[in-house]
Specification:
39% of the residues lie in helices and 19% in strands. The protein is of the alpha+beta class. The chain crosses the membrane at residues 6-23, 35-53.
């Protein structure tokens, strides 16, 4: 009896997983897409009926087919960099370092007028790592308070900002599916971009709600984190990976990179519920300048400031106005004699 029950549970689990795998990795055209998942469920139903009536052979047959499906999943479904990508993830960021000079190729700097109307601009930019001055976490919300997209922006004393974002690399006509993210529907991309592209498109074009947090890190950690992003992005250009909703998303990648620099970061449910990441960072003591995480949220919300900024040259400065832990623009210029416009 116990053996039959266990076999039934195994068949049911294999039925659910296999149907979803065949749906999100279809072996037939769109018109015939439902046929294989439906056939798979029918085979599983026959196996369950067989177990219930004392006939084990349908379950053994289904088990053999499940092993074949797992083998196909392991060796037949492979990530690739050669697909018909949507334009905003069509290229892969790559970088190289010589001394203190970081060169990034394929930095996205689109000029967005609407979600479908934009100028495509991929640039090569250089950064002086000796002038790396700040790390900011941007969270962008589109509906549910527990879920946000995380972007990390690195600031330099010459006024440059470069944003790194872990992105779903979608193909043309793909639609986002959290369940599909468990079933290898998308590749993974670590993309470098300008703030007036990746932050502005979310608040001003997609209507998302943006928050900015100044993250204080140990000496040398910001440089190591930036170079970890560069290395991860460059590796993906050579060895593509699949995105995974749970294990390879925008928050888990940030944690994995940061844990290499500051080992032993505590695990917490907020690393999965990314919308609550500020509370995690506040408890770690990496957010300064506000009496509570709630106060930091209120002051760090930059949505209206972003939408009110029409001059791209002022975008980065304006979204930081009033953010706890961020010096005022006048203080920054006075403190750094190399900054543009600073007194000499």
């Amino acid at each position: 009896m116990i053996g039959t029950l266990a076999a039934g549970v195994a068949v049911a689990a294999g039925a659910a997983w296999g149907a979803l795998a065949l749906w999100f990795q279809p072996l037939m055209g769109a018109r015939w897409r439902p046929l294989l998942p439906a056939a798979w469920l029918a085979l599983a139903a026959a196996a369950l009926i067989g177990l219930a009536t004392g006939h084990a052979w349908p379950a053994w047959g289904f088990g053999g087919l499940l092993l074949m499906l797992l083998a196909w999943w392991r060796w037949g479904v492979r990530p690739s960099n050669d697909r018909d990508w949507i334009p905003e993830v069509a290229r892969i960021t790559q970088g190289s370092v010589q001394g203190d000079t970081l060169t990034l190729r394929n930095v996205r700097n689109f000029n967005w007028r609407s979600a479908t109307d934009y100028d495509v601009r991929w640039e090569t930019r250089t950064y002086d790592l000796s002038r790396l001055a700040s790390v900011d976490l941007a969270l962008s919300y589109w509906g549910r308070p527990a879920i946000a997209h995380a972007l990390v922006s690195f600031g330099f004393t010459d006024g440059q900002q470069v944003v790194f974002s872990v992105e779903i690399r979608r193909k043309r006509h793909d639609k986002f599916s959290e369940i599909g993210g468990f079933f290898r529907q998308y590749e993974l991309s670590v993309l470098a971009s300008a703030e007036e592209d990746s932050l502005r498109v979310r608040t001003n074009i997609r209507g998302e709600d943006g928050y900015l947090y100044r993250v204080h890190m140990p000496d040398g950690a910001a440089r190591k984190l930036l170079l970890s992003y560069v290395d991860t992005a460059s590796q993906l250009a050579r060895h593509p990976r699949f995105y995974n909703t749970l294990t390879a998303n925008c928050i888990t990648i940030i944690y994995q990179l940061a844990d290499k620099i500051v080992p032993g970061l505590p695990l917490n449910y907020r690393l999965l519920l990314s919308g609550y990441l500020p509370e995690y960072l506040y408890r770690l003591g990496t957010l300064e300048g506000a009496d509570s995480a709630a106060a930091y949220r209120r002051a760090g919300r930059y949505t209206e400031r972003a939408r009110a900024t029409t001059d791209p040259a002022q975008y980065s400065r304006n979204i930081r106005r009033g953010v706890p832990g961020v010096p005022s623009a006048d203080d920054d210029d006075a403190a750094d004699p190399r900054a543009p416009g600073a007194p000499t």
